[in-house]
Write a structure and sequence with these properties.
The structure holds two protein chains of two kinds.
Chain A: E1 2-3, H1 5-14, E2 22-25, H2 31-38, E3 43-47, E4 60-63, H3 66-76, E5 80-81, E6 91-92, E7 96-100, E8 104-115, E9 120-126, H4 133-139, E10 144-148, H5 157-166, H6 171-190, E11 193-204, E12 209-211, E13 215-218, H7 227-230, H8 240-247, E14 251-254, E15 259-263, H9 266-278, E16 285-288, H10 295-306, E17 313-320, H11 325-339, E18 345-351, H12 354-364, E19 369-371, H13 375-386
Parallel strand pairs in A: 15-17, 17-18, 18-19
Antiparallel strand pairs in A: 1-13, 2-7, 3-4, 3-7, 5-6, 8-9, 8-11, 9-10, 11-12, 11-13, 14-16
Chain B: E1 11-14, H1 19-31, E2 35-39, E3 47-48, E4 51-54, H2 57-64, E5 68-71, H3 75-88, E6 92-95, H4 102-115, E7 118-120, E8 126-129, E9 133-136, E10 145-152, H5 156-167, E11 172-177, H6 188-197, E12 203-209, H7 214-225, E13 230-235, H8 259-268, E14 272-273, H9 280-288
Parallel strand pairs in B: 1-2, 1-5, 2-4, 5-6, 6-7, 10-11, 10-12, 12-13, 13-14
Antiparallel strand pairs in B: 3-4, 8-9, 8-11
The chains are: A alpha+beta, B alpha/beta.
Chain lengths: 389, 289
Amino acid sequence: MNIHEYQAKQIFASYNIPIQDGIMIEDVKDARNAAEKIGGNFWVIKAQIHAGGRGKGGGVKFAKTLSEVEKYASDILGMTLITHQTGPAGRLVKKIFIAGGVDIKKEYYLGIVLDRTSEMPVMMASTEGGMEIEKVAAKTPEKIIKVGIDPLIGFRAFHARKLSSGLSLSKEQMKHFSIFAKALYDVYSNNDASLIEINPLVLTVEDTFLALDAKMGFDDNALYRHADLREMRDLDEEEPTELEAGKYGLSYVKLDGNVGCMVNGAGLAMSTMDIIKLNGGDPANFLDVGGVASAETVAKGFEIILQDKNVKAIFVNIFGGIVRCDRIANGILEATKKINVKVPLIVRLNGTNASEAAEILKAANIENIITAKDLADGAQKAVNAARGM
Amino acid sequence: MSILVNKDSKVLVQGFTGKEGTFHAQQCIEYGTNIVGGVTPGKGGQIHLGKSVFNSVQDAIEVVKADVSIIFVPPAFSADAILEAAEAGIKVIVCITEGIPVSDMMIAKKYVQKKGTTLIGPNCPGIISAGEAKIGIMPGVVFKKGNVGVISKSGTLTYEAANQVVEAGLGITTAIGIGGDPIIGTTYIDLLKLFENDPETKAIVMIGEIGGDLEIQAAKYINKNITKPVVAFIAGQTAPKGKRMGHAGAIIAGSKGTAKEKMDALEAAGVHVVASPADIGKKVKEVLG
């Protein structure tokens, strides 16, 4: 789960991390009021979507007067913002954050992410603030200073010293940075975050550090113990079909092809997409109905796949283990009756009682059900069917 | 021969009396696994599936001398179950549970390493040593005895691979599902080492997927240390970047952890990489001649 900048800043503030403060609004009518409340003589209007690159896409504007605040607020609210992270369809902006101006001396980058190789969080800092960090990492990796933080000892003074000296901070700056970084690690570990990024982290003219931006993502598996974070979830930022699938315990990801895939198990589901591609077709989706496929999950799976109008055929690829294939075959028949699937259904069942299952499907004599003997056969038949062959 | 577990393994079921624990423990017993008892706090002294129930792993070890445990407890309590088993002296812990927080696993893994315990999983189908012991949730009938070792991040794809190996006229020594989470107890390298030293295993099947770099680390290790033929398949060649594909660990972060990157590294290490998941069995047959 990801949250918005304004929400991440609320969390930061509760840990006494200095932030560029502001007010989130959803109605352009509130823009002037918000700016007056914040005070000062310049403001930043920032689109709140769960994607980076907002500035480049036109989702961040600087206003010098209250009427400019109103103008930019009305420009950004309701716009479809396209950035390198949103994909070509972009994202509708429903919330904006109006923040006060900050006098900036220098911009940095500071982030924490789980490093899967060392299996611990790693804090990363760079003098190249405000840039796309992926590009910095690719072109000038030496400009990113990293420290692994063993969760058994937490964030220590030596971690802060290593980062500070890498950033060439003065003694006074270092003192302030150390407090900032320690608090940020606390935010990360206390909230089961999977990612925190501050880009840019700014050094103000007073030589103190402040989070000008904030991005946070969380470990979905840990959300059960964070009621406060669950409330921050913004369903508008999530793909509706994926959300619906999730409600039924199915894992779905929409892709661009026309061969629908219904599979039990994530690894087999990915391989099914791969083999469709290798056979000259294009998968329409990833769908894992769970290791144990039942009539209910299969029916829901059909419903979800068929919401995508590109789908011309569905490849049902199920390895029946402890749940026998004959039961799954009956489940598929039940589901097709309930959902009224019109596109060709290529069914490949393997595992316990696979031959009985094939008999059941054959005996049902349903025109659009095509049985397949193995993975390769099924993939080829599905690709052909999607082509109308 | 087999690796990690065999017919003499004394297996304890943690979360024994729950729905999942009961169902799968029954299946394991039917397979012939030497299940010696189970743990459900508060139900010590009861008999379940004809075996003793204990309040703690410590209690169970004292009475039935268990050396392996399999965990079926809900995700919020799984790290605790792992730590309890490791602390009590269990040698091999198999954690089936999916959905354990990463921060819990970071700590749990460090502790089991310190104790010298082998942890398989979490978020995995478990281990099966064909004809000897099934300590997991896989369909036992698929895994006919033979001389091929299997290491996989996946569940059903492992059954698919094992089935192909069997249909090619071969069989399995031990198959291990190492799990699809970002942090897992045992990685490819640990198991490649065991298979290399197992006289009965003649070839190794390695199934990976997008996300992380365990397959790349394995490639480096294979290049230097493994003399037996390795056949590999990496799932997710068509997976989009930045999207989690079912498993918590199956995500391409930035441009890191792609299937192509892993396939190239394995190929460069002399591994027989198949692009199609339908070719795993055939390829094993081919390399074994």
